[in-house]
Amino acid sequence: MGGIRVEADTEATTVAGLYAAGEAAGGMHGSNRLGGNSLSDLVVFGRRAGLAAAERALGCRGILMSPRGQVADVTRHARSYFDNEGGEDAYALHRDLQDTMQSLVGIIRVERELLEAKERLADLAERAAKCAVEGNLQFNPGWHLALDSSRCSQSPTARP
After folding, report:
1. What is the pLDDT of residues 109-142, one digit of tens each?
2. Which of 4, 60, 87, 107 would you label with 18, given CA atoms 20 to 30 Å apart?
3. 74 and 31 inside one domain
């Protein structure tokens, strides 16, 4: 349903070098879109994003580096979920998030329900900060859900 703000001609986001198109990008259809429009949107705006990204890449010189320590910080955060023994189950968090969005933030929106959803989301963010996973670093769907939940908790990468 969109949500990432993009520049109309290039699909550039507010993050340098990041482009969004298709269902991730917000724009011409507001909070809803007709199903048939999805594919044509992706083709048109995906092409715009690809051309703009290619143009930007051609202008880059040298090696692009992330800020010092950022990779180590993100890695440490990602692995921290394995240390949260007795923490919140990622699948339960995901289910509760789905239930909240389905019941309170549908196509037809009412202020009272949106305010309730906001409260529930704040609670979910607190719970997500205590999320725990089991298993190992190889294919681990629970870990993937935990990493997704970090976008609404206090992760170093979660801030817009």
Report:
1. 999 999 999 999 999 999 988 899 989 888 899 9
2. 107
3. no
